[in-house]
Amino acid sequence: MLPLLTPEQMRRADMAAIECGVPSLVLMENAARSAADILQKWLQPPSASSPTVLIACGSGNNGGDGFALARHLACRGWKVMVWWTGSREQMSPETLTNLTALEGLGIPTHHLPPGQLPPPPPPAEVVVDALLGIGARPPLRSDVLPILRVLGSLPARRVALDVPTGLNAETGEADPEAFRAELTITMFAAKTGLFLNEGWHLCGRVEVASLGVPLNLAAAHADTWALEWDDIRQRFPLRPRISTKFDYGRVGIIAGSAMMAGAAALAANAAIRSGAGLVYLYTAGRIHSAVLPEVIARQLPSTPEGWLAAEALPLLHELLERVDALVLGPGIGVAAVPVVAELLRSIPERLPTVIDADALRAITPDSRIPSLWVLTPHIGEFARMTGEDRSHVARHAPWLARQWAQRWGGVLLLKHVPTIITDGKRSYWNLSGNPGMATAGAGDVLAGMIGALLARRLPPLEAAAIAAFLHSAAGDLCLQSASAESLTASALLSALTSVFPQTAAK
């Protein structure tokens, strides 16, 4: 797993490394060496045998990283020019040591006093921003703006050290003139702000530079994680050689209406294609012709308009006793919400349940839900459920999701960029996926996938996080043969066969 740290958590992780006996000067040296490795690999093949780089440094430790990087690149044959701002008196001993080393080695440096405009820049293939580190917050100070404007005007590749200057490393909010990087080399662990709000647009590709100490020192301070492929392979349940369909769980899907029968089909088909042993689809209105023959489908009593009717409740109560996991909501429509609210009161606490789409309308700010439930709202649904302003939710999604998951008592999967999955204490962020997945029915597929993993007895937080990861992997796989404009939920379903890990016992 990839730990995602706030600046304060990163500060504590740095202190832990120092307290283990690794001096901060050594940490800075290791970070610079690792950053040089990453930068050189990223630029391959360089357009020249001796690439030219301009590194702009501040007087904090981010500038110290830049000074040390300049020395390592010069040792590798790069043509290096360093601009620096601030004063020596402001520098930490580590930063001053690295500036002094540059000067002693004759590597060109140019000091920019406050208020002085930068000189005409040298031709450079790469510019590196090491002006302000993760402790800085927008708005930007006037003394760095002229430097950023010059860097932004150069026809060069752009790299940020730790965080682009002008970006809040915790929230992803940014100054309008923040540095825009193609590559961000962040130190020790990824920072939350790199993947939030403007962070997506300013950071480009994100690589983590090693400090030469075990990553578990950083991980010990994390409460937010991003899953990686190795995590999926390790956590996904094995299919024993001797087994039957009853060993893989029975999923109940309560979904659909006359106008939205396709949503029910997508959710049910996703559940059966995500490893569930049996899938029961109970649907109002009509059974869509796309429902796979492996799904056990039953038509429910409906209103004349094709919505779920109260007369269906006895049948639904029977379903609750038959299944190992429940998915409730895709395509049921607003008219079915009173029936859903009545049904929610009957769901046994032992039954893992996904509440999706219009079923979420039955959840209010005062609701209390079992710990085995997973709520799957998008930003607009979450704003309606909580009474929060939608734009406020979009800007502060991770913290609001954690707060409301803790208040409600279950797991919350907030569909956003990134997708946030949290139980109020621990969070997973899904960093993959693409804009083509913003299409009708994609959420129905995800709901069915989560239901299947819950039926396999995965804990709700892990089931939701793994389903979100594989759902996005399917979306990214679709882009290998189609455009984002043409991606459909049906294509996601087809791609599931290629993204689930091989778990059959030998």
Task: Describe the 3D structure.
The protein is of the alpha/beta class and 506 residues long. The protein folds into 2 domains: 221 residues, Rossmann fold (3-Layer(aba) Sandwich), CATH 3.40.50; 251 residues, UDP-N-acetylmuramoyl-L-alanine:D-glutamate ligase, CATH 3.40.1190.20. Helices cover 37% and strands 16% of the residues. The chain contains 17 helices and 19 strands. The chain has a 12-stranded mixed β-sheet with strand order 8-1-10-19-18-17-16-15-14-11-12-13, with helices on both faces. Helix 3 runs parallel beside helix 4 and helix 16 packs across helix 17. The radius of gyration is 26 Å and the shape is elongated. The relative contact order is 0.10.
Estimated helix fraction: 25-40%
Helix-strand makeup class:
alpha/beta
Low-confidence stretches: none
- Content of β-strand: 15-25%
Major sheet attributes: 12 strands, mixed
The CATH topology assignment of the largest domain is: UDP-N-acetylmuramoyl-L-alanine:D-glutamate ligase
Task: Measure the end-to-end span.
Answer: 27 Å
Q: Tell me the count of domains.
A: 2
Structural shape: elongated
Rg calc: 26 Å
CATH class of the largest domain: Alpha Beta
Report mean pLDDT, rounded to a whole number: 95
Could you say what the CATH architecture of the largest domain is?
Answer: 3-Layer(aba) Sandwich
**Secondary structure tally, helices:** 17
Number of strands: 19
